[in-house]
Write a structure and sequence with these properties.
Blueprint lengths: L10 E4 H6 L13 E9 L2 E4 L8 H10 L5 E4 L5 H13 L4 E4 L3 H10 L4 E2 L3 H9 L4 E5 L5 E3 L3 E3 L14 E8 L4 H15 L3 H10 L2 E2 L4 H21 L16
Parallel strand pairs: 4-5, 4-6
Antiparallel strand pairs: 1-10, 2-10, 2-11, 3-6, 3-7, 8-9
């Protein structure tokens, strides 16, 4: 954020992060401050260590309710995909949980494999290898439909247990701070339309790891990203985790 706006410094990650940092009081920046270029959208999976007693999501829900705040969930920390997933589950079920934050989604997944935590709710792309190796047991996917992951099988949709579950895709990509030279943004646009949108490698990556290919940029990318940012922003606000109302930074309640 402090680098010169010359187009040579980019950042990357989840659009929802730059969308909610300001309402969480973490960073004074929001999505309108960036030109965004999306690559894939990710979904989260609720998985457990295979040695745990939880064979189904029903079992896990019962444990959350029987031991409020005691079942440990490994995530990548505040505002991460895994944290958002648990807050969504909490919103619909009222369960309490014990979050154990790690320095990234992959460390959170590995910690669950190692038995440091009982559950992880990180993204499918971060869990795919451990799921295929049988080092994690998937219980549910936070998606409107079941997921059929290669080498894993069918993972049931969370809607089997939470029929009124609603949320959008968690979009990921590259961000360039506003103020970069116009020719940089235009060149990135050409790159996205000509190469990224036609990249078989990225399509294969998405198919293999449970992601959705979303090569959007410009106003279309911002609109897509806001479809997920808005419900998450208000989720945090309603849960009492926001420092300011999303409305104060132009995010209307969906």
């Amino acid at each position: 954020m402090d680098a010169p706006r010359d187009g040579y410094t980019w950042t990357a990650g989840a659009a929802v992060d730059i969308g909610v940092y300001k309402i969480l009081g973490l960073i004074d920046s929001q999505i309108e401050d960036w030109d965004i270029f999306l690559g894939v959208a990710n979904v989260m999976i609720v998985s457990v260590n295979p040695d745990s007693p939880y064979q189904t999501f029903d079992d896990l829900l019962a444990a959350f309710k029987a031991k409020p705040g005691q079942v440990s969930v490994a995530t990548a920390g505040q505002s991460s995909a895994g944290h958002i997933a648990m807050e969504i589950i909490k919103k619909y079920t009222g369960v309490e949980y014990k979050m154990i934050p790690y320095d990234g989604g992959n460390p959170a997944v590995i910690a669950t494999v190692a038995g440091e935590a009982e559950v992880t709710t990180q993204m499918a792309v971060e869990q795919a290898d451990m799921l295929r190796a049988g080092k994690l047991r998937p219980l549910a996917v936070l998606s409107d439909a079941d997921m059929d992951m290669k080498g894993v099988g069918v993972i049931p949709s969370i809607k089997k247990w939470i029929p009124n579950y609603e949320t959008g895709p968690n979009y990921f990509g590259i961000w360039i701070p506003k103020g970069a030279p116009k020719e940089v943004i235009e060149t990135f646009g050409i790159l996205w339309d000509k190469y990224i949108a036609n990249s078989q490698a990225i399509k294969d990556y998405a198919d293999e790891r449970g992601a959705v290919f979303t090569p959007y940029w410009g106003e279309e990318a911002t609109k897509k990203a806001m479809s997920y940012i808005a419900p998450v922003a208000w989720l945090y606000y309603d849960a009492g985790k926001a420092k300011v109302s999303p409305e104060t930074i132009g995010i209307a309640r969906p």
